[in-house]
Amino acid sequence: MVKIESFGKTKSGKKVFLYTLNNGKAEVSLTNIGAAVVSLKVPDKNSCLKDVVLGCDCALRYENGDKYLGATVGRCSNRIKNGIIFLNGKSFQLSQNEGDNQLHGGFEGFNKKLWDAEIIENGIKFTYISPDGEEGYPSMLKTEVSYILTGTTLEIHYKAISDGDTVCALTNHSYFNLDGVGNGDILSQYVQIFAEQFTTNDEHSLPTGEILSVKDTPMDFLTPKQLGADINSDYEQIKFAKGFDNNWVIKNYDGKSIITAAKAFSKHSGITLEVLTNLPGIQLYSGNFLDGAGIGKKGAEIKNRSAFCLECQYFPNAFANENFPQPVLKAGEVYDKTIIYKFGII
Ligand code: GAL
């Protein structure tokens, strides 16, 4: 059963909805603005449901926001240096919404679009058609994002097709706090990333093309580590971002198989999270740009480091770095990627 409620209106007066699915074990609320996850309630060790993702109370907050809370990010997630991409030997200038660079699809990325919604078995399918030239991207792109809740697992399936060669690199930008949002920071929560390497950034958070081993660095999350352990380290990458904000190279990526990229848990709540994907990279972002603005649920402040993201993705700034997998979708090909958030108890 899906409960459909009003979620307010966009600036241009279009109605927005909140879709809630509850299967007796977990509950997810989704909205068609940004095809975003608004809340995700899972049981803690005492069987109490805890909402483990950041979100807002109405559509306008998503339209006006700049934190990408729970949103679908596209056409290209993360940063592109100078907003320039290359396709078939031709360069295209995209919109530049973060200084000279493009971040998360431009000024009005997929996170700000009003998607069509359709109820499917155990879930909701959102559809958006991005016209040729939107934010500078060539060709039309038809995108479907399906959220499916089974038990305490939320699967997100991405499908896209284009009428010409283009870029497609979608992600979900959920911010997690495994103690439940509003219950302090995430510094004591543990994260494990199944990656032996990470991509290094310049001071503008743009990958330089260098891929380094995590060995003997604070970027080593091969065994579970508390986020607070190295977050204030003077390691250059961490200083640049004022916390964690890099892309890790997922071990055993083969382009097809859906594999475990990361795990996280809180000893306090007992809640565990496993992140699976068939994408090549994962961004651990420790909420360094969260600034206490009162935009959260029930107007709550969203404080610095009060949640973390594990964004499955193509490596950022791939067009400037030929050694990275290229997020190119050829005309007629089907983009078919999956991200899974699987919850449990320690
Ligand atoms: C992340 C990115 C951060 C920041 C954030 C949005 O994906 O890695 O640098 O831009 O999104 O505030």
What does this structure look like?
The protein has helices at residues 59-64, 236-241, and strands at residues 2-9, 15-22, 27-31, 36-43, 49-51, 72-73, 79-80, 84-87, 90-93, 102-103, 116-120, 123-130, 141-150, 153-162, 166-167, 171-172, 175-176, 190-193, 195-201, 207-213, 225-226, 245-250, 259-265, 271-277, 281-285, 308-313, 328-329, 335-345. It is mostly beta strands. The protein is globular, with a radius of gyration of 19 Å. 49% of the residues are buried. The mean pLDDT is 97. Beta-D-galactopyranose binds next to β25.
Q: What helical percentage do the residues reach?
A: under 10%
Distance between the termini: 29 Å
The SSE order reads EEEEEHEEEEEEEEEEEEEEEEHEEEEEEE
Q: What topology, given as strand order, has the largest sheet?
A: 11-12-13-14-28-24-23-18-21
> Would you report the number of β strands?
28
